[in-house]
Every structure is written in structure tokens, then in C-alpha cells.
Design the sequence.
């Protein structure tokens, strides 16, 4: 069995090749290693191989890992799963980034519950590009209004947009969805916002996401292997 640390090396090579192809700098891409359903030991192994930013979808599982790995003081934790309003406090208290805000109510609760001694919580708005009923996310037409409201909340720092587009192996479709998100971010910045983050691209489409302007890619399977049964 190939160790996750070996998989990480291959992912970093893919990022390097993709940025070269897109005439971008490798340093412009932040890799989030998504460790959902994987044990803390796997996270620590990838950490020891040099990775510092990790994403989690399931809150209780994430909190267990954060507690188990508290000795790794420079880990950055990203929450990327759907957010229930009654779960916002532990997210506000334990994470550095939240990628999946799609309602003002959730943003307000995170702002109110962020401990004042911590830095502002970095926020991305999740956009439902393909309007799938099964996915969270605000519609792209509603993004400007929500972004304006969230940007005014204390203890939060609105950084950009996130999307999980319709899964497809068609590169043209992949380009279409990622280009939409990049255009949306550019429109927000043209209206005076200063957003710097496009969280898009996963194991099967990271190269297309990088070509379309991703600044963060969220990679699970290509590092940790197929997801375990939860």
C-alpha cells in the first residue's frame, strides 16, 4: 500500500506541472489536504511530509482530530462541509477557515461566536454553480448581496468563493464551471471588494481549476486514498 506521504509528493508534482502549463507560479496555489474519514495518524504522516493545511467535512470527526493533533501547533484547519446552525460555535472556535458559508444566518452566528482573542475567521462563500438540489451553496446571482452583508460582519474576513461543481470528466464542462466562479470573483472585486481566494478543484479536476485561476485546491482521494465508510 502506498503511504499518504508518497501520494502527497505526486499531488505536488501535478500542481507544479499544472501551474507551468497555465503560466502561473506554484507558490500561488495552496493545497488543502482533505482527510475526511481518515484517522489522525494519516493526517500526522502527511504533516510530517510537509503539509500544513487540512480540510474536514464532518464536525465531530474534525474535532476529534484537532484534539488528537493539538501538539502540531502550526496546522491550519479548514472546515469545508455543510454547516448546521446549531454547530457553528465549535466551528468558530476551532477552525482557521470556513469554505462553506451560504447563508447570512450562518455567517452571523460564526461572527458572534468567534472568540475575540483569535484572529478573524477566514470565510469563503459556497456557490452552487450547477444549481443541484443535492448540494449546498448560494446561487451565483445571489452572491453579490450575500458577499456585501458578510463583508460587514466583525470577527470574519471574507476571502473569496468556493464551489463543488457537477462531477464530470468532460474538460469543457469543467472549464465552464470554474470560469464562472472566477468571473464572479472578478465582478465582486470590480465593485470594490478585495477578495483573493478561489477554492475550487479536487482530485479529478485540479489541473483545470488551476488553469482557470484556483488559489486553493481541496485534495482528498489523491492523497489519502478512497474514502473509508463513515
Sequence:
Amino acid at each position: 500500500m502506498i503511504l499518504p506521504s508518497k501520494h502527497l509528493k505526486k499531488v505536488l508534482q501535478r500542481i507544479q506541472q499544472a501551474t507551468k502549463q497555465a503560466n502561473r507560479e506554484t507558490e500561488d496555489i495552496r493545497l488543502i489536504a482533505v482527510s475526511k474519514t481518515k484517522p489522525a495518524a494519516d493526517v500526522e504522516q502527511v504533516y510530517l511530509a510537509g503539509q500544513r493545511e487540512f480540510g474536514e467535512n464532518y464536525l465531530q470527526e474534525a474535532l476529534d482530530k484537532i484534539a488528537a493533533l493539538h501538539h502540531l501547533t502550526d496546522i491550519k484547519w479548514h472546515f469545508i462541509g455543510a454547516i448546521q446552525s446549531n454547530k457553528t460555535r465549535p466551528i468558530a472556535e476551532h477552525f482557521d477557515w470556513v469554505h462553506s458559508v451560504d447563508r447570512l444566518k450562518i455567517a452571523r452566528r460564526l461572527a458572534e461566536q468567534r472568540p475575540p482573542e483569535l484572529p478573524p475567521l477566514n470565510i469563503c462563500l459556497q456557490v452552487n454553480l450547477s444549481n443541484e438540489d443535492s448540494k449546498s451553496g448560494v446561487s451565483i446571482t445571489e452572491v453579490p448581496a450575500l458577499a456585501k452583508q458578510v463583508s460587514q460582519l466583525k470577527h470574519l474576513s471574507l476571502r473569496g468563493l468556493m464551489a463543488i461543481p457537477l462531477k464530470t470528466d468532460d474538460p469543457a464542462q469543467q472549464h465552464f464551471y470554474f470560469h464562472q466562479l472566477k468571473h464572479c470573483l472578478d465582478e465582486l472585486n470590480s465593485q470594490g471588494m478585495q477578495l483573493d481566494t478561489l477554492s475550487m478543484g479536487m482530485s479529478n479536476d485540479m489541473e483545470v481549476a488551476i488553469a482557470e485561476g484556483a488559489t486553493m485546491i481541496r485534495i482528498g482521494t489523491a492523497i489519502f486514498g478512497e474514502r473509508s465508510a463513515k
